[in-house]
Amino acid sequence: MQKFDEKSCGLVVFRKENNENLFLVLKYPGGHFDFPKGHIEDRDSSERATALRELEEETGIKSVKFIDTYREEISYTYNRKNTSSNKQVIFFLAETDEKDVKISHEHTDYYWLPYDVAFEKLTFDNAKNLLKKAKSLL
């Protein structure tokens, strides 16, 4: 079993507009596009609580409805300050009625995108795979 240096939780968030699912994609300062996510904190009561807290902190979105059949784990290694870290991220899928996003200092922009456009916009293959799995449930 792989040991992880970090564990985070995030959300693939969508909303319906004109009978179409639009997915929330955030632009990060490094120029990449991904879903909202963040580290688990001691005060978080569950993985879902972490995902909700991070969503509100990063986007201002407070109200979502979880799609219970979706819980996906991804892992990757990245380098920070010449140190390699193994990170695990647990993602959930949730629907919101909220359209307005108030991005935090951690991001530079946001987009509500239909599936095909979101798929092309996302930078990393693991995010694209999360989106594919989300689409298959909707």
> Hey, roughly how much beta strand do the residues contain?
35-45%
Described by strand count, sense and barrel closure, the largest sheet is: 7 strands, mixed
Based on secondary structure, the structural category is alpha+beta
Instruction: Using the coordinates above, name the CATH class.
Output: Alpha Beta
- The overall pLDDT, averaged over residues, is 95
Round the Cα radius of gyration to an integer and report it.
14 Å
Explained architecture:
This protein is α+β, with helices and mostly antiparallel strands and 138 residues long. The chain has a single domain (6-137), classed as Nucleoside Triphosphate Pyrophosphohydrolase, CATH 3.90.79. Helices cover 24% and strands 43% of the residues. The protein has three helices and seven strands. The protein has helices spanning 47-59, 115-121, 125-137, and strands at 6-17, 20-27, 33-34, 37-39, 65-80, 83-95, 109-114. Strands 1, 2, 3, 4, 5, 6 and 7 form a seven-stranded mixed beta sheet that branches. A hairpin with a 5-residue loop joins strand 2 and strand 3. The longest helix has 13 residues, at 47-59. The chain is globular, with a radius of gyration of 14 Å. The N and C termini lie far apart (32 Å).
